[in-house]
């Protein structure tokens, strides 16, 4: 049974919390910060950490290779497991939060990351790297993916919901900016163990904030969401079976050609970003004499332009055909990868800066048009279907992260990996142009027929 949160309801957990009337943005007394903004701030810190923690292994490939003598392929396998679990945990993250609550899931995920990163300092065998950084960190980071940002924005905000979603999504890009230069300096100075312990301590440091500030809903502290008026009614609890719905949406979508075209093209997107550049750019640049901290800083700069490119791509998606936008993005990305072997050097020069800026702008620019195509073809199931398309993104990233390491071991260079990824982007260009147009109404009717 639903209930309306009245304006006289006080916060049961904090004497300084604003009344419900102030939660609607019309405070009669002194203005106070609505707790939703504190929740969003902690969520932003969590997402920064999740992105930074997941991206850290790329900086540690060379130090681990030098100390243990493990091949780059075997080290890259641990990164592949990390990427794979990150991707396939994400579609179920919302179901986990519905079942166990945001605070428990996020705190547990941070503890997994801290354990996975901290335990690596004791490892003596390659399988332990796979267990710690692959399984534990992969599961932890996957539990705090885009679903977490969408859940916080949807539950705690009515006004400014789009702004908050955008800012929280940008936290992923900011994670690279904050962590990669620091981890690169630590790995190049005190050593990779100092870097791993720093990641573990940073994850642990956020746990008390999560426990103290995060709540599942504003109703838990006697408030309405930010910007909600007095007519606001508490939504009913989500029906059981969220995980079942996730699998059902996959079963329905997988019967369509569009799903496989989107999944294949987005797998190539993951292969050419997280899998290749995100994992192997630092060791690849180091092969050409560039210091690790400098290479890590260049990769961090990608995160700055990632935010700009994603916002601009969203603006373009509202105005132009999503298929054509994707085709342009993949074609230009492929061309840039073909030129990359000629750009790597022992210092930073203008063409390399141009590559970094372009790759940042193009990095997640594919997301808005891909979501638009999911919405066009899958209607009400678009969000869940996109979760599975995102899982294919991480599958492509995992395969290429491992494959590029094998190429480096067998040829002594990453050149074949760069050019092969460029060719794959050309394939993605063709795949997205094959997708036809379809109305959301027709997609919804087809989904109903498929379920009956």
**Which stretches are low in confidence, meaning pLDDT under 50 for 5 or more residues running?**
1-30, 439-452
Report the order of strands and helices: HHHHHHHHHHHHHHHHHHH
Task: Please outline the major beta sheet.
Answer: none
Secondary structure class reads: mainly alpha
Q: How much beta, percentage-wise?
A: under 5%
What is the number of strand segments? 0
What is the CA–CA distance across the termini? 30 Å
Helix content: over 70%
- Described by the principal axes of the CA atoms, the overall outline is globular
Describe it.
The longest helix is centred in the last third of the chain and has 30 residues, at 382-411. It contains 19 helices and no strands. It has 452 residues and is an all-alpha fold. Helix 4 (72-100) runs parallel beside helix 6 (126-142), helix 5 (102-119) packs antiparallel against helix 6 (126-142) and helix 11 (257-275) packs across helix 17 (382-411). It is globular. Mean pLDDT is 80; it is low at 1-30 and 439-452. The chain has helices at 20-23, 35-55, 57-68, 72-100, 102-119, 126-142, 146-156, 161-188, 192-213, 242-253, 257-275, 277-287, 292-317, 322-343, 350-363, 367-378, 382-411, 415-434, 440-451. Helices cover 75% and strands 0% of the residues.
């Amino acid at each position: 049974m639903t209930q309306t949160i009245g304006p006289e309801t006080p916060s049961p957990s904090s004497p300084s919390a604003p009344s419900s009337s102030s939660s609607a943005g019309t405070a009669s007394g002194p203005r106070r910060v609505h707790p939703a903004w504190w929740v969003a701030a902690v969520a932003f810190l969590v997402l920064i950490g999740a992105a930074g923690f997941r991206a850290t292994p790329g900086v540690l490939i060379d130090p681990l290779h030098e100390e243990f003598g493990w091949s780059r392929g075997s080290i890259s396998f641990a990164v592949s497991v990390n990427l794979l679990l990150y991707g396939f945990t994400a579609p179920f993250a919302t179901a986990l939060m519905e079942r166990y609550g945001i605070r428990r899931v996020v705190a547990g995920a941070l503890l997994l990351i801290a354990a996975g990163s901290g335990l690596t300092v004791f490892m003596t065998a390659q399988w332990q790297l796979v267990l710690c950084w692959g399984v534990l960190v992969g599961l932890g980071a996957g539990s705090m993916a885009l679903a977490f940002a969408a859940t916080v924005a949807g539950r705690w905000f009515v006004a400014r919901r789009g702004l908050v979603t955008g800012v929280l999504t940008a936290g992923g890009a900011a994670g690279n900016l904050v962590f990669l230069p620091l981890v690169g300096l630590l790995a190049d100075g005190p050593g990779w163990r100092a870097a791993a312990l720093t990641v573990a301590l940073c994850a642990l440091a956020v746990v008390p904030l999560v426990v103290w500030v995060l709540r599942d809903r504003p109703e838990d502290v006697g408030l309405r969401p930010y910007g909600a008026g007095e007519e606001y009614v508490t939504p009913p609890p989500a029906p059981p079976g969220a995980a079942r719905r996730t699998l059902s949406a996959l079963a329905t979508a997988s019967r369509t050609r569009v799903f496989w075209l989107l999944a294949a093209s987005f797998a190539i997107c993951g292969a050419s970003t997280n899998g290749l550049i995100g994992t192997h750019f630092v060791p690849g640049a180091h092969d050409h004499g560039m210091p690790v901290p400098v290479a890590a800083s260049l990769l961090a700069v990608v995160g700055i332009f990632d935010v700009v490119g994603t916002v601009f791509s969203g603006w373009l998606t509202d105005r132009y055909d999503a298929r054509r936008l994707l085709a342009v993005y993949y074609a230009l990305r492929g061309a840039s990868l073909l030129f990359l072997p000629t750009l790597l050097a022992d210092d930073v020069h203008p063409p390399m800066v141009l590559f970094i800026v372009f790759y940042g702008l193009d990095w997640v620019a594919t997301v808005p048009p891909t979501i638009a195509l999911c919405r066009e073809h899958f209607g009400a199931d678009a969000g869940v279907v996109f979760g599975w398309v995102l899982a294919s993104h991480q599958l492509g990233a995992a395969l290429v992260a491992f494959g590029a390491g094998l190429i480096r071991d067998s040829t002594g260079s990453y050149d074949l990996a760069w050019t092969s990824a460029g060719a794959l982007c050309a394939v993605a260009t063709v795949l997205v142009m094959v997708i036809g147009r379809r109305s959301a109404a027709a997609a919804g009717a087809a989904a109903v027929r498929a379920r009956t």
